[in-house]
Amino acid sequence: VSSAVNSMLLRSLKDHYLEVSNMAPPPKMGPPAEFTIVKGALDSTGPVLRKNYKNEEISISVMRLANIAAPDDDEDDDEINQLFVHVEVSKPGQEKALHLLLGLYPDALGIHSVALRPKLQDGFIIDMNKYTGPLFENLDEETRDAFHNYIEERGINESLFPFLQAWLYVKDHRNLMRWFRSVGNFIKGTDAAKAIPGANDPKEAAESG
User: Fold this and answer.
1) CATH of domain 2-188
2) Where are the domains of the chain?
3) pLDDT higher than 80, residue 100
């Protein structure tokens, strides 16, 4: 019985793997102006984009809002299309950096929070035990507008959405392909990528740039 169950599971994993491998990727696009793609970003949880602005280094990390909040039956397209962006602005010789958490849409950008904290090696690491500043919405309108102008001046706006959305698609696709392979390998008890034929399919998305 166990062998039959394993065979059924492996067959299902293979079918889904082949289905995913044949999915058409989004049009390939380069990074936004003045930004460069961080090497190895597809295989890490750290920054995706980086640029220099005067004496500052700006790093951008991104993930889907759906990966943070539990899905809601009532969620609309705006929530599905929202990206959660972490921006780090650092300066040489300073241990702390300015961290901004943003909600990014195809046609808009909103700031959720602004904090001055130590520089990060990986994105989205927050120490909940430390004060990180007031709620952004509680700041007066003039200060909120000034922060929006601050990030706009550094090229952080809704124009980043198309690239970051496409980049996340590639990352999600790679992770899903790897999941089917690794689970299949575990079920079959194989170290090499042989549990699911086509594991080295050249159609698997590669890091763009």
Assistant:
1) 3.10.280.10
2) 2-188
3) yes
